[in-house]
Every structure is written in C-alpha cells, then in structure tokens.
Write a structure and sequence with these properties.
The chain is built from 6 helices and 9 strands; from the N terminus they run E-H-E-H-E-E-H-H-E-E-E-H-E-H-E. It is globular. The protein has a single domain, classed as Rossmann fold (3-Layer(aba) Sandwich). With 240 residues, the chain is α/β, with parallel strands linked by helices. The strands form 2 sheets. The protein has a 6-stranded parallel β-sheet with strand order 1-9-8-5-2-3, covered by helices on one side. The chain is 30% helix and 20% strand. Helix 6 links the parallel strand 8 and strand 9.
Length: 240
C-alpha cells in the first residue's frame, strides 16, 4: 500500500490538485485526459482548490469528466455527485458540457448503468482505460459505490452496474450506480483521497491486504497511491 501523508485535508487537496494539473499539462498535445471523479466531502475540497487556481491553471479543454459512481437521484438533488461537482467545479470554471459525461441518476438504474457502460466503452475501449481515477473510502471501507456485502464487489464482467446496497451509511436499502473493479484496475492511475479520524481504524485494516469486508482494499491498479491526512493515518502500523 503506497501512501502519501499530509498534515490535513487542505494540504492533501493541494497536493492532489498539483498532481492533476501536472498530469493534464503533460498529456500529449491533442490527446484528451479522461478522469473519473468521486463524490463526498474530500473531493469537494479538491474541487474548491482547483477553482481557486483559476480557469487557466490547466488546459481544461483537454479534460473529459466522468464519474465513478452516482446516487439514483436527479442531478439537482442535494445527494447527487454530479450536482456537487457542478456547484464546486463545473459552474465556477464554466466548463463546457461537451466534456462532461454524467451518470443519469434520474433514469431507471439498470438502464442508466447500461447506457453509461456503452458510453465508456465507446470512448475508452473495453475495459475502459482512464488516465486517472479519483476514489474515496467510507468508514466501512467502501469505495465508489462498491459496499461491503454488495454483489458489485464480486462483479467481474460488467463495467458499470446498478448495485443494490444496504448499509447504515445509506440509511437502509438503496441502489447506487457504480463502475466496477475491472474499470478501476484498468486505470493508468488511481488516487485515493482519504481524510478524517473516522477513517483511521478502517484504513489500518485495509493496509493489511485484500479483504472483501473492506472493498477499497481490493483495488489492484498498478499505479495506486493513497493520499491521506494525519487523522486518517493515525492507526497505520497498529495492525499485526
């Protein structure tokens, strides 16, 4: 498990922004940069940092925005991952709609998953290969919307699924749209952004190795780095 530890979420977010900018700038001229975004409070901070850097901090016209997961809600719903990104990144930077590929959470879940998979394969091949996938980790060890005990954790064929989830974090049974491990593991780079003391115990378990109880531990992309803050990393090394 390769980690980079930072004093706090602000420092972590600045480092993630620095790397993202450098990767996009280094992309060959004319080649698009495909990134899968995540939801939650940690990427929100990252988006705010990118906005503060300004529209000209990187060639946004090269960046194609995708999502790793989505709630089954309309885009204007407060729980929408797309909606959060729109408010904290897309609108402030006035990013054009042609480069934005959202998961349609308002559509029937299975149909939405199939449509998104078709779009991904059409743009990025089979399996779809992202230049960068940003992931978070929940206190239960889930990542994207691959929750402990859900069928999506073992999915090996489909690239995008309507995952049936029953978790205290989702306040009961629900359906989430999510890319699967074959997509995550095919990415050129995966970066976990993990902050907060509520993640510390789980992160220590994840660091011990693959375990279906903690789906984030199953990510096997060759270039995977965990960007963590001091609070999240305080128990690393405590597991025998």
């Amino acid at each position: 498990m390769k980690t980079q530890k930072f004093a706090d979420l602000d420092a972590l977010s600045r480092a993630a922004a620095d790397e993202f900018i450098s990767l996009v700038v280094a992309q060959p001229e004319g080649a698009p940069f495909h990134v899968a975004l995540s939801g939650g409070s940690t990427p929100k901070k990252l988006f705010d940092v990118l906005v503060a850097r300004g529209r000209n901090a990187l060639p946004w016209e090269r960046v194609e925005l995708w999502w790793g997961d989505e709630r089954c809600v309309p885009p204007e719903h407060p729980d929408s991952n797309y909606g959060m990104t729109k408010a904290h990144l897309i609108d402030p930077l006035q990013l054009g709609p042609a480069k934005i590929h959202r998961l349609a959470g308002e559509r029937p879940p299975i149909q939405a998953a199939q449509e998104y998979e078709s779009a991904l394969v059409g743009a990025l091949g089979a399996p779809p290969i992202f230049d960068l996938v940003w992931l978070g980790m929940g206190p239960d060890g889930h990542t994207a919307s691959l929750f402990p005990g859900s069928a999506g954790v073992r999915e090996k064929q489909a690239f995008v699924i309507a995952n049936e989830v029953d978790s205290p974090l989702t306040q009961g049974p629900t359906t989430r749209l999510s890319v699967t491990f074959p997509v995550i593991d095919a990415a050129r780079r995966v970066r976990f952004l993990v902050g907060g003391a509520d993640k510390a115990a789980t992160l220590a378990e994840v660091a011990t190795g693959p375990n279906e109880r903690y789906p984030s531990s199953l990510v096997a992309a060759a270039d995977t780095v965990w960007l963590i803050d001091e609070a999240a990393g305080q128990k690393l090394g405590s597991k025998s």
